[in-house]
Amino acid sequence: MAGKRRESKRQKPNILVTGTPGTGKTTMSTALAEATRLRHVNIGDLVREKNLHDGWDEELECHIINEDLVCDELEDLMEEGGNIVDYHGCDFFPERWFDCVVVLQTDNSVLYDRLSKRGYTGSKLSNNIECEIFQVLLEEAKDSYREEILLALKSDTIEDVDRNVATLTEWMRLWHPST
């Protein structure tokens, strides 16, 4: 389980929930926010609402986020603490922001069905399936954050979501700021 964090003045932890699109990041983050009363920050929504992007990628059918603008927008909020940040990328966020980093992982057949239902086709669908097969987000998280704060959690079913929320709620109950 993710360990204690480094010294900070935050009274509430920050949690990053990452994983390939379709692994259930927003579903789990929403449920976790309800259970813990932490603030859910969906980076995709934030990018759209605050125009924190450099245009639209026609091939991948998504905004090209401006990572510097996103980090500038979040800095004060993250220093305050009490946030669940939900995004499919993780390597551009400052390590100091997070007390726990969760990588959700989903069986490829389940992920394929979820993404197909969202309307993903062609290279967008295959790129995301390959990302999950090769555990790209898990490797990115391992390269970007300390091992003791990293959790890889299965996210195939609603029971997995419930179990993950319970696990993280318990982690938060035991979390105490460093002095």
Automatic annotation (TrEMBL):
ATP binds at residues 22, 24-27, 118. Its EC number is 2.7.4.3. Residues 42-65 are annotated as: NMPbind. GO terms for biological process: ribosomal small subunit biogenesis; rRNA processing. InterPro entries: Adenyl_kinase_AK6 (IPR020618), P-loop_NTPase (IPR027417). GO terms for cellular component: cytoplasm; nucleus. Residues 1-12 have a biased composition (Basic residues). It catalyses: ATP + H2O = ADP + phosphate + H(+); AMP + ATP = 2 ADP. Residues 117-127 are annotated as: LID. Belongs to the adenylate kinase family. AK6 subfamily. Interacts with small ribosomal subunit protein uS11. Not a structural component of 43S pre-ribosomes, but transiently interacts with them by binding to uS11. This is Adenylate kinase isoenzyme 6 homolog. It comes from Punica granatum (Pomegranate).
